[in-house]
């Protein structure tokens, strides 16, 4: 029997990808200088909290920790695909029904690994958006420091030489510095809220899509298990011949069609809120803002739940199994 891990040679764009084009590959998938283990994770987390402007250090550390999360998911995705191959290899020498079902189960498990790999790319959009807040925090730090420096100079002169003509000049500079600081602080406040909302919309949309597609796969996987005859046999007794090849193939086809046609609009798991909002949620903007400064030059360049319906399998095909 020809064994395959996927029924398609090339993938057409799914409905979800047509609705929202897939993001570029995650930046965590390349540019590794310190390996993939916990030492690299700890190094990134500790250095992010000690470098760069003080105002942006906590968020910089969060961004680095999210990179560790993504690299861990990447490892899980890779191991999941290896598990799928091993499951199929193990069942190949078994009875016909076990061989066929384990091969089809391998297809579904492999697809889970593929979904996790796609999830990483979408999750990276959340992390990249958080970096926009980090960058604006870094750009605000100099204006705060300048204002504080002028304030300290004025206080020092008033103590040392109250009649110094420099005091008037410094006070004028302080007025300008405060005006610049007000603009910078307002920009920080606005961008923080905008980007925070956008970032977590990215993350939660990715989680909803990933979770619902996993639920779909689980439903079709349980349908595959129904093809196995687990009726106990006595020693010397033979089982009825297996006739579920077409049914198992159709289950895989139905599963792939369900995954390909899923869109975020079809998500059916909705939150039930006990409070009511006065106004509808405003759309969030993902447009960039000028004036944001990168402060970690050594860092590599970054980044609805359909009802889990019972799989549509022809009753006659399953019955014959």
From TrEMBL:
Biased composition (Basic and acidic residues): 312-321
Region (Disordered): 1-34, 278-321
Annotated keywords: Coiled coil, Phosphoprotein
A GO molecular-function annotation: lipid binding
Compositionally biased region (Polar residues): 1-20
Residue runs in coiled coils: 167-194
One GO term of the biological process aspect: eisosome assembly
Top-level taxonomic group: Eukaryota
Acidic residues composition-biased segments: 293-311
One cellular component term from this protein's GO annotations in UniProt: plasma membrane
Alphabetized InterPro entries for the sequence: AH/BAR_dom_sf, PIL1/LSP1
Name listed for the protein in its UniProt record: Sphingolipid long chain base-responsive protein PIL1
């Amino acid at each position: 029997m020809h064994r395959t891990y996927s029924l398609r040679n090339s993938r057409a764009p799914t409905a979800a990808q047509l609705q929202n084009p897939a993001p570029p590959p995650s930046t965590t998938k390349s540019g590794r200088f310190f390996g993939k283990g916990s030492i690299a994770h700890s190094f990134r987390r500790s250095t992010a909290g000690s470098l760069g402007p003080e105002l942006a250090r906590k968020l910089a550390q969060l961004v680095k920790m999210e990179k560790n999360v993504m690299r861990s998911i990447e490892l899980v995705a890779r191991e999941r695909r290896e598990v799928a191959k091993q499951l199929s290899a193990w069942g190949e020498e078994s009875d016909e029904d076990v061989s066929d079902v384990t091969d089809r189960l391998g297809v579904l498990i492999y697809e889970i690994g593929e979904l996790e790999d796609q999830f990483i790319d979408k999750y990276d959009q959340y992390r990249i958006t958080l970096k926009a807040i980090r960058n604006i925090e870094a750009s605000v730090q100099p204006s705060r420091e300048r204002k504080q420096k002028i304030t300290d100079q004025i206080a020092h002169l008033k103590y040392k030489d109250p009649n110094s003509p420099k005091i008037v000049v410094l006070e004028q500079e302080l007025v300008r510095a405060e005006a610049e600081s007000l603009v910078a602080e307002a920009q920080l406040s606005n961008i923080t809220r905008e980007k925070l909302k956008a970032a977590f919309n990215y993350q939660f949309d990715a989680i909803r899509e990933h979770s619902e597609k996993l639920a779909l796969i689980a439903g079709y996987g349980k349908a595959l298990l129904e093809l196995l005859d687990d009726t106990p046999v006595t020693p010397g007794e033979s089982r009825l011949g297996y006739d579920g090849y077409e049914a198992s193939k159709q289950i895989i086809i139905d599963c792939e069609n369900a995954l390909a046609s899923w869109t975020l609009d079809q998500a059916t798991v909705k939150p039930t809120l006990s409070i009511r909002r006065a106004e509808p949620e405003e759309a969030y903007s993902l447009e960039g803002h000028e004036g944001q400064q990168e402060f970690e030059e050594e860092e590599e360049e970054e980044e609805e739940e359909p009802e889990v319906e019972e799989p549509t399998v022809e009753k006659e095909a399953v019955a014959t199994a």
